[in-house]
Every structure is written in C-alpha cells, then in structure tokens.
Amino acid sequence: MIVLKTLRGDYTLYQKTLFCQQRRWKKPVNSAQTRLEIRRTRDSKLDKLADNLRTLETILRVHKLMSTRKRGPLVSVQLMSRWRNILGLNINVGKFLHKYPHVFNVFTHPLNRNICCRLTPKFKSLLNLEESVTRECELDCVCRIKKLLMMSKSGTLHVYALRLIRRELGLPDDFRDSILGKYGSDFRLVDLEVVELVSREENESLGDATIETWREKEYREKWLSEFETKFAFPVNFPTGLRIERGFREKLKNWQRLPYIKPYERKKENVVRVRTCGRIERFEKRVVAIIHELLSLMVEKMVEVERLAHFRKDLGMEVNVRELLLKHPGIFYISTKGSTQTVFLRDAYSKGCLIEPNPVYSVRREMLNLVLLGRRSTRQLQQHDGIKEQSGSLVGNEDNRGTRDEDWFTPILESFEDGNLNDNFEEVCESSEEEFDDCGLNLNRSTESETCIQGLIKSTM
C-alpha cells in the first residue's frame, strides 16, 4: 500500500509537471506584410534614400504648416510643439528643429523674448527655385498627363487621383487651373472631377513607351535578335537574391512572352487580353503599365497605396503588391517609414537617378541641405556671425525694459534674410544716428547673397 501511494503521488506530480510545461504553438501569420519581408531582398542604398526622402517630406510639411500662419514666417517653437502628432514625429519638435540648422533658423525673438523658428534663406531660395522650375516645365507636365490619359481604358482619370501623385508628377499646386483649365484644347473636365482627353488621334505620336527606347538600344548596340528584345524588360537583380532552380528559364520564357503594350488598344476593351491565352500575358501588360507609370514620375518612385487609385482606370485588376514582388529585378519595394514605396530599378544607380531632370536636381539640392545635419559650413558660420551681431544690438537697446523700439524688427529680419540692401535706406531715414554701427555688416550680407545665387546657378 505504501508503494502504491508513493507511485500514485509520483504520477500526479508527473501530470502536474507535464501540464505546466505544455505549450501551444501558434500558427505562423501569413499576411501581406510577412510575405513582403520574407520574399523581398533588401537594397540598402534605396532604403537609405527612402528614409532620407521621408525626412525631407516631413520638413516640407512643417513648411506648409508654417506658411498657413497669418502672422508671417515667424512661428514660436511652443506653438510648433503641438504639431508633433500631425507630423508623426517620434521626438520632440524642438530637437527635430535643432537637428537641421541649415533648414531651420531657431532664435530668440528680440521683443517677446520667446524662442521662434523660421526657414533659412538658403532653403527658401530652393523652394522658390523649385516652384519656378515647375512653372518652366509646364509642357512636360502636359505631356505626362496626356500619356496617363492615353493609358486609361476610357481615356479619363479622376482629378483627385492626379492630385495624390501631384508632387511625383512634378505638377504645380494649382494644376487644375494652370494646366487642365489653360489647355482646354487638349483636356476636358467632365463633372468637375473627371478629366478627359479631347482627341486621342492627335496625340498618337506620344504613344511610345520609355521601354521601347531601351529595346531599340539593346537591339542596335548588343546585336541581339528581335525575338529576344521585342517584349523584354531591363532586369537588375539586387545583391544577395537567392535564385532558385529553374528561375532563369522561367524568366527567359517570360521575357519572350508577347503582350498588349500600354498605349495600344485592341477593339473595345483591353481587359479582354485575359482571355487571349494565359494569365501571364495580362500580368505582363500590368508590369508594362506600372513601368511606364513610374517612368513618368519625376523621381521614378511612388507609394504603393497610391497605385490602387489607378487600378480600374488603367486596367490593373490584380494584386499590385504581389505582382511587384514577383519581379524583384524590375521593381523594388522599400518599407522604410509608415508607407511602402516602389522604385524603378533600371532608373537608379548607387542611390541616384541616372538621367536627372530639372525638378529632381532642385529636390536633390534640398536633400543635400538636409543631409548636412549639424555639420558646420562657411555659410552657416557666416549666418551665425550676423545673428550674434544683431543680438548684441538688440541687447543694447532692450536692456531698459521698454518695447517702444519697434524700429529694430525690420533690421533684424533683414540681417537674417540676407536682404539688408532692400530696406536699409528706408530705415536709415527714420533714425540715422542709431544705424552708424550697421555699416560693418553690409559686406557680410552681400556675400551671403552671392552664395545663394551661385547655388541657384549650379542647380540650373
């Protein structure tokens, strides 16, 4: 009996230990995000570029919020701290502003004695330059919109879809009036929210895809047969891609597979290509449409979510993300930030665009200014010296505790903007005796102006 009790007690103890050590293994999640991370081969240069562009986009959003203020370009940092959730920042707004002294000028207000922020003259000049270059490239914008309408099944597109990719296409903010309304002979607005191409026959000369130029170059320079290059795409595999058995043979057969090109029309509806053979032809047509759509972009990139607004109009009724993952040698999806961005691989080399355009060149100058961070340059030291002298002048006048000296505010703004020559004579007429010491700073302001003009000429 004693032996049975001990055995029974050991058995119950064994059951308890088994029950405590039991684990329930969950089934692995099979979602679009997990498939994206598993099947995607990372490209460090494009990922880094996407991360830097996200920072530049945040800075432009800060500029947009600052421009909505009615009191001018000066905004207090205390007020900007409320924009943290709007901008989606993980750090304090003050720390974010101090990280980019070449973009934001943080200083103490001479009268209110609170910390304020404004954009630096260098970054302002680049913003104005981008706007002017966009206006000069108006005909290119018209050509891009025409090509998008020619790729559409019905020859129409929604205006809000164009507004979503306005910056990617290089369109001005008021493109509805400055382009769609101005060129009434080419575009027609239907129901105020749908734009239509007036005449497709007159624009048949624009119906040559960018990929056709590459195929002609491959055919002439590399002496390849027409059978090899007629329906082929440029393929650049990322470093570290695992190539499975039979992958090269499948890719070779896919490159030779015929399809209906983006600007071609077959009878009434191009979606009928799904019934003409196999599904691969229809998917290859969608690849050609996305390739041409990215080629029309200024920076050859766009967010994946924004492609969904063109699925029905352009006949891309497939899972776009899965299709992009099937062709890692043509497209690359970056997951940096809260959104997913697709890049056109053959347009980039070492993180830079192979064939830059004027709008891209100006935006690249903005990005280079952001990437300087807190590194000091000659222009920044020169600007700090001007700001120190202006601060000392304010201290001499404001130690009395009165605020009647409002005459000094335009002088401070002229020092920080580098436009002292514009209003110096007007202020000198009001009080000549107080400005005897300001003549020493005229040479510094002219040097800063020449630096900005040299930067603008280099970008042009």
Automatic annotation (TrEMBL):
Top-rank taxon: Eukaryota
Limits of the PORR domain: 42-374
Positions of region (Disordered): 382-402
GO MF term list: RNA binding
InterPro entries the record matches: PORR_domain, PORR_fam
Any Pfam family matching the protein: PORR
Protein name in the entry: PORR domain-containing protein
